[in-house]
Amino acid sequence: MSWLELIKAEFRAILTNPAILLTVIGGILFYSFLYPQPYINQIPREQKVVLCDLDNTPTSRDFARKVNATSQVKLIANVYKKNKIKDMIQKKEALGYLLIPKNFEKDLKLQKSPTIVYGGNASYFLIYGSIAEGISNVANSFSKDVIKLRKNQFHKPSFSIDNKPLFNQTIGYINYVIPAVFILILHQIMLIGAGIQGATQTENKSGYWLHVNPSKLIIARIIVYLVIYAPIILYYLGFCLDAYSVPHIAHLQNLLFLIIPFTIAATSFGILIGEMIPRRELVTFFILASSTPLVFTAGFIWPTSLIPSWLNFLVQWIPSTPSIMAFLKLNQMGADLSQITSEWLQVVILAFLYIMISWLTMRIKKAKATK
Amino acid sequence: MSFYEAVKEELKLYIKDKWLLSSVLIVPFVLFVIISNIFGKGLVVDLPVGIVDFDKSSYSRDIARYIDGSDKLHVKSLYSDENRALKALKNNEIYAYISIPKDFEANSKKGLNPIISSFYNTQFILIGRIIDSALKMTLWTFDAKLSVGKTLFKGDTQIKQAYNESIAFTQQITPLYNMEFSYAKFLLPAIIPCVWQILLIATIVLNIIAQQRETGLKNWLKIGFAKAFLSKIFLHVVIMFSWCVGFILYFYEFLGWNMNGSYTYLLFGGFLCTLASSAVGFAIYFSSYNPTVALSTTASYTASCLAFVGVTFPVSDMSPFAQVWSSLLPITHYINIQISQANYGANPFTTINDIYFLLGFNLLFAIPILSIRLKKGDI
Questions:
Q1: Interface touch A166/B34, C-beta < 8 Å
Q2: Residue A103 sits at the chain B interface (C-beta within 8 Å)
Q3: Which residues from A are below 8 Å from B169, CB to CB?
Q4: How far is residue B304 from each of residues A291, B88, B92, B322, measured CA to CA in Å?
Q5: Which of A22, A35, A293 sits opposite B296 (nearest CB)?
Q6: Residue A302 to residue B108, Cβ atoms within 8 A
Q7: Rounded Cα distance, B198 and A289, in Å
Q8: Which of A142, A293, B79, B103 sits in a 20 to 30 Å window from B267, CA-based?
């Protein structure tokens, strides 16, 4: 079989396999729509907080007003009994609370340092985080203003703090989740595509692939997938990221420098999976099952340094792990190529490794078949 | 054939297909072990940050010491200029850097209120938020202590009083239902049920595929519709519901997290979720009769469920479409029940709607029944 014939045969095998088409094309389109849906509105704003103002003085009302003015918090009610707070939180009428103690104003004047108490339903961390952030920012600047008004405090040394978010300056969830998850989706779909093809051929037991040298077959298959995935990658990392207003900083050539070895690594890993797993539906099953652990070990949600080392070691063998980090560095954080060298090398080594193991597996299978 | 024999046949199917057997026994175990290990105790410690010190004064050194002393932060390196710090940030060596301006100590003593800037990586939102609040807390404390005066590090008894004078009022922040502020306690009760959800549907689909391959669906249905369905669902529910019992015991007994409500009601919710997922799995397979299509549909439907259940991102802030999609996943309702029981110890009646939803999923069993009827058993 000539190279051209082989490549044609490979194209035909993929494009006439409804299972691959449905999973790859259908999956790609469906996910590009579905996954960003929860985050379309970006940051959770105006969370419902119940106020319990036991002081009810101009100062306490001023404080409450400032809290209400933040983008994170919306005071929904003022209750005068502490146990009403818990009740409202359990019924989800409020997600957080703010308690201003009795004699707040008086104690401030007497410099007796009263305590304001606030909190939120930490079953939902994101909500809790934005409530705590909103109230603590107000509390700290309020405290500073009170101090400034006290005469005896004038010449004490002091400074201000300015914390600036970098790379995802709006602290938007889309920018946080989507770039990383899109790389994982591409990865999983590449595994499923090549995996289903391999399993289909194992199930069919005869065909052109048995008469071709395995090394030639693998190379042809990777070339074909590169061609098929090119528009898909452009759609995901170009069109979709644009449509969801995710910034992309990386230059196209730098991106290609990463994405091409990534595609080769994922496809060759997929080819290997297709050789190992005997049935098509099992390929999808195992790749589906692996998705959640891969997201949480990729290092963008939970710090890599806190992941147990045995687990971190295991996931380094999956092409998605270094690829996600390298992509985030390049495209979201504006790193240059020299700063992704280690991840890039890792992806390239994995590509070689999986090509070699697939080749060995195919040869062994072939030798067994001819016996 | 009696129901008992039908269940035995079902058991034989699992034993014959080792892949199917491992999908309900080994795969859940491995996934649960991996996921519960990712977060460890769930407490964030020693996140690496950098410092650019243009002042090189005793204040700036104190600040570095203060930051390093915070249990959440760790000063990994000192940089001579901001470019290097930024490079390290882009390289993911540090998650933030703090820039202390020239003449910081002198200006702050003069009351000129110099500014300490810090830059933190919000590409990783969860990590960024922790860094932001830990830095603010540390620097505010340092600021407050500075104004106390020179007795700063000498453990003077007047410090507390002076400290009080410098901060007007104190703040007490309470993360309700997760007092130790553990990320494991926040994420695991959502991630593990979501993985369970994926497996619940995928394994019943794999089971029907195995049935089709081993005996053909027609032969399987020979024992009668009800018996065939019930025996399959029965064994699947027994196995998969055991995993639910397993992770509930793991959370609330082994890890000792608070269980403020009713185990019975929570388990009832878990049971209904298992059954509802079987209904979804049956509906998925009998809509196409094609193994690969069925598994692909399962993947499309379940793979993203964690994003939709509302724990990591509030349902109330989602788009209307996402809110509807969220309610169409059985696990959303299970997690609502879990939170209301374990955390709030709420009256079961408050989550009665989730029970109705879970029961409602059983209507999906109509799809296989209708589809088989329409094909007049020719499947």
A1: no
A2: no
A3: 104, 107-108, 113-116, 139, 143, 146
A4: 9, 33, 27, 11
A5: A22
A6: no
A7: 7
A8: A293
Rounded Cα–Cα distance for residues A339 and B149 (Å): 44
Residue A92 to residue A347: CA distance in whole angstroms: 46
**Residue A238, C-beta contacts closer than 8 angstroms, at least 6 positions apart:** none
Of the candidates B91, B121, B178, the beta carbon closest to that of A167 is on: B121
Q: Is the CB of residue A159 less than 8 Å away from at least one CB of chain B?
A: yes
Distance CA(A100)–CA(B29), nearest Å, equals 48
pLDDT tens track, chain A, 371 positions: 788 989 998 888 888 888 888 888 888 899 999 988 888 876 667 889 999 999 989 999 999 999 999 988 999 888 888 888 888 888 788 889 999 999 998 888 887 888 899 988 888 877 888 888 889 889 888 887 887 777 555 556 677 788 888 887 777 788 888 999 999 999 999 999 999 999 888 888 778 887 888 888 999 999 999 999 999 999 999 899 888 888 888 888 899 999 999 999 999 999 999 999 988 889 999 999 999 999 999 988 898 888 999 999 999 999 999 999 999 999 998 888 988 999 999 999 999 999 999 999 988 888 887 76
Residue with tokens 């800037």: B117
Q: Which residues contact B249 (CB under 8 A, 6 or more apart)?
A: none
Interchain CB distance below 8 Å, B168 and A44: no
Find the residue in A nearest to B113 (Cα).
Answer: A159
Nearest to A35 among B187, B290, B307 (CB): B307
C-alpha torsion sign, points B22, B25, B26, B32: positive
pTM for the model: 0.89
| Interchain CB distance below 8 Å, B44 and A161 | no
Joined tokens for residue A181: 């998850």
